[in-house]
Amino acid sequence: MSKPKVIITIAPTGGMATKKMNPNLPTQPQEIADDTYRCYNAGASLVAVHARRPDDEATCDPAIYTQINRLIRDKCDIILNNSTGGGINGDMVRELPNGLWEIMWQERLKGMQGEGVEMCTLDAQTVVASFGGKEILVATPPTWIRQIATMMQERGIKPEWEVFGLADIVQDVQRSLNEGLDEAPHFVNIVIGANAFQGALPYTPRLLQTMVDHLPARTVFNVSAIGAAQLPASMNSLLLGGHVRVGLEDNLYYEHGVLATNVQLVERMVRLVREMGFEPATPAEPQGQRHEPREIIGLRPLR
Prior knowledge:
CATH topology: TIM Barrel
Largest sheet: 8 strands, parallel, barrel
CATH superfamily: Aldolase class I
Helix content: 25-40%
Oligomer: single chain
Structural class: alpha/beta
């Protein structure tokens, strides 16, 4: 009997961490592509891509996304998921008159315009993030959710619904699905332990169970846990029938006081997935065989 297949996502960069925090963080297109390829060979089947400017600050510049996507696709068949969240500096933010900062909506929309993208993140909530002494508004009201989801549909892009709390699931995501803004299977990324985000939930097994219990019908879910929560929450996700995500975007350390590389985090997760009785879904497409990760998510084959 075949073992259940698990998609391992690698999130190599993110829009917040810096090389000062961990020098292994890839930020430039070739660095990101090379690191992604190493993670692909280690067992990752989906990459969550964030773009950075040449000065390493955040951007959703379609030209940079296109460059990253092409460099990765030239190497492997990993699923390409580009961020529409951007990051907390660079092109993405502006200061508001009331003292808050804002991640700008029009900049976020550029995240789906890179060539070769298959999926994009869709942040189905409005939150305030606290970083570096700034309070940063990430506003996604219902009309904007409809706008970005419709634009993704028109481009043939599969949304990855990002949720931080229960209300995101039962209100924003469910409303969007009721309006026909995504075809099943739906792919929901449960972000947990993101303490810098107002309204985000800490990781406990009971809280994660509650979020999973309220997911819409015909949903495939993934768990992205931040920092030290990454390992226990990932194992919890497997037990609940979900998929897992690792990478320096979410966790800079291999263990307490020891900085990680992206490949180390993927290799460890592959070992643990197998120890738990599962098997990593492979993105390779041998002739005559199913393409497991794309089939699970509901994506078209590359060929």
